[in-house]
Amino acid sequence: MALTSYEVWVDDGAGDFTTRLAPMVTPTPSDSSAIITGLVHGGIYGIKMTAINAVGTGLAADVVYLVCGDKPTAPAAPTADATTKNSITLAWNAPSSDGGSAVTGYSIYLNDLSVGDWTLAYQGEGYPTR
Questions:
Q1: Which end of the chain is more exposed for a tag (fewer CB within 10 A), N or C?
Q2: Are residues 45 and 22 in contact, defined by beta-carbon separation less than 8 angstroms?
Q3: Measured in whole angstroms, how far is the alpha carbon of residue 46 from the centre of its chain?
Q4: Are 92 and 48 in a shared domain?
Q5: Quick count: other Cβ atoms within 10 Å of Cβ 47?
Q6: Residue 129 domain-assigned?
Q7: All residues at 6 or more sequence positions from 55 whose CB lies less than 8 Å from its CB, including other chains
Q8: What is the pTM of this model?
Q9: 3-class secondary-structure state, position 66
Q10: Closest of 45, 51, 54, 56 to residue 26, by C-alpha
Q11: CA distances from 7 to 18, 61, 63 (A)
Q12: Same domain, 38 and 17
């Protein structure tokens, strides 16, 4: 049987995937994406999706929870707070925008100019900002 449509349901945190809480989106069978509007920036939403054919609606895919927001802007360029002959202590200012969700960590890349390649030196939490 040919696929006729999809249903995408949104839960605003109450655990009830109904059209009363958020709009139901009905993409066509050829769609591979859908835009859900009317959400609150920074809100966490559950998303549930089903496929439909002439026989009926299939089982729902696993529910995913997503934050409505953007990626953070870049932090300020780091500066050297202290240096030794084999280390540099970095400091930086946090991004001007967290994109609607708290910044949870930073990635620091190191470039040895003699090679020219960037290498991940640190990724995670715990580094102080100014």
A1: N
A2: yes
A3: 13
A4: no
A5: 19
A6: no
A7: 1
A8: 0.54
A9: strand
A10: 51
A11: 11, 11, 13
A12: yes
Task: Determine the residue type at 92.
Answer: W
Calculate the dihedral angle through the C-alpha atoms of 85, 75, 69, 16, rounding to the nearest 10 degrees: 40
Pair 62, 9 in one domain? yes
Q: How many residues does the chain have?
A: 130
Hey, how many other C-beta atoms are within 10 angstroms of the C-beta on 125? 8
How many helices (H) and strands (E) are present in the chain, helices listed first? 0, 8
How far apart CA 17 and CA 6 sit, in angstroms, is 15
Segment 4-55, tens digit of pLDDT = 888 888 886 777 776 433 445 666 777 777 778 788 888 888 888 888 889 9
Backbone angles phi and psi of 36, in degrees to 5: -105, 120
Tally of structural domains, the chain: 2
Structural domain containing residue 23: 3-67
Q: Domain holding 43: CATH number?
A: 2.60.40.10
